[in-house]
């Protein structure tokens, strides 16, 4: 790749980053300021209404609650029967939750809602990821290849196979894209709305953030749900299956878009470089012809002077 292409891509990349930073700042800064104001007011009202609690004690309690949540102590469901409280919060490290965490490690999703706290767990996580990440990449590439073959098979066997041309290709691609979007984004969004209590858009947002391996951790399926159904082993196994096939599909789409963008950008820059080189060669040839003519002129002038 020519250095001019690399420089052009670097400029475009930095410009895209700067635009993203400006847009996110404009969209989220005011919401952050409002949230801070609300939290400070709640803190002041709590200390005012419960004067026996000091500000330091409140901070210490909040710190303990956050630490407890990271260690799996989630008070989402408390049964009160006959004056007795029974903690029915589930463990973050039961087998199915640990299996879900393993998926987030080797797929590089990394929600950040859960992490190993022991030295042995952290060491195993490093070794597990070193082997699991490349293994996952190879496996997802194979799954993506099979999905692509399946799409071609459906295309050949469907009613669209009788149409040819660019318009037909667009129609075929649109049908396949709509089918996959429904399977990997819209249908899971309805499921998350039922199991997690999220809105439909929040479900779509979570699906994309998960399958693109961005993994903010602001929404995590199966954790912090308002329904007890989201903690069932079958639900988490379904999530694992959806993540694996969804990752293969979305990685296939992203790689396709990257190839299209790379081909267009590289072709345009390469064409510009070729035109520049062609113009430079033309200028050099013209300069050489001018130098030759000047040498001939000097030779003729010198001969005339000698003969004269």
TrEMBL record:
Q: Which domain of life is it from?
A: Eukaryota
Q: Which residues form a coiled coil?
A: none
Residues that span the membrane, as ranges? 95-114, 126-144, 170-192, 204-231, 237-258
How does the record say this protein sits in the membrane? Multi-pass membrane protein
Please tell me where this protein is predominantly located.
membrane
Query: Which InterPro entries does the entry mention?
Result: 2pore_dom_K_chnl (IPR003280), 2pore_dom_K_chnl_TASK (IPR003092), K_chnl_dom (IPR013099)
Q: Where in the cell is it found?
A: Membrane
List, for all copies, the residue spans of the domain called Potassium channel. 78-147, 180-262
The family database entries (Pfam families) matched by this protein are listed as: Ion_trans_2
User: What are the protein's UniProt keywords?
Assistant: Ion channel, Ion transport, Membrane, Potassium, Potassium channel, Potassium transport, Transmembrane, Transmembrane helix, Transport
Identify its protein family.
Answer: Belongs to the two pore domain potassium channel (TC 1.A.1.8) family.
Q: Indicate what this protein is called per its UniProt record.
A: Potassium channel subfamily K member 2-like isoform X4
Organism, by scientific name, is Priapulus caudatus
**Phylogenetic classification of the source organism:** Eukaryota, Metazoa, Ecdysozoa, Scalidophora, Priapulida
């Amino acid at each position: 790749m020519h250095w001019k292409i690399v420089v052009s891509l670097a400029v475009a990349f930095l410009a895209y980053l700067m635009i993203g930073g400006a847009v996110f700042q404009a969209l989220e800064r005011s919401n952050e300021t409002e949230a801070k104001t609300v939290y400070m007011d709640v803190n002041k009202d709590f200390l005012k209404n419960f004067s026996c609690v000091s500000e330091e004690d409140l901070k210490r309690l909040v710190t303990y609650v956050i630490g407890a949540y990271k260690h799996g102590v989630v008070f989402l469901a408390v049964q009160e029967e006959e004056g007795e409280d029974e903690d029915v919060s589930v463990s973050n490290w039961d087998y199915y939750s640990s299996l879900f965490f393993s998926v987030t490690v080797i797929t590089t999703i990394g929600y950040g809602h859960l992490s190993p706290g022991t030295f042995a767990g952290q060491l195993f996580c490093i070794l597990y990821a070193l082997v699991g990440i490349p293994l996952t990449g190879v496996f997802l590439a194979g799954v993506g290849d099979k999905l692509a073959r399946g799409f071609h098979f459906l295309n050949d066997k469907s009613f669209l196979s009788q149409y040819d041309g660019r318009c037909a290709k667009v129609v075929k691609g649109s049908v396949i894209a709509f089918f996959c979007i429904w399977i990997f984004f819209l249908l899971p969004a309805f499921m998350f709305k039922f199991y997690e209590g999220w809105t439909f858009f929040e479900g779509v947002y979570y699906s994309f953030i998960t399958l693109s391996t961005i993994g903010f951790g602001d929404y995590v399926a199966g954790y912090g749900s308002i329904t007890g159904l989201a903690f069932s082993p079958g639900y988490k196994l379904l999530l694992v299956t959806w993540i694996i096939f969804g990752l293969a599909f979305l990685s296939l789409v992203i790689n396709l878009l990257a190839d299209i963008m790379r081909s267009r950008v590289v072709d345009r820059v390469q064409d510009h470089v070729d035109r520049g080189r062609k113009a430079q060669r033309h200028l050099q040839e013209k300069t050489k012809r001018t130098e030759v003519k000047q040498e001939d002129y000097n030779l003729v002038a010198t001969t005339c002077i000698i003969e004269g």
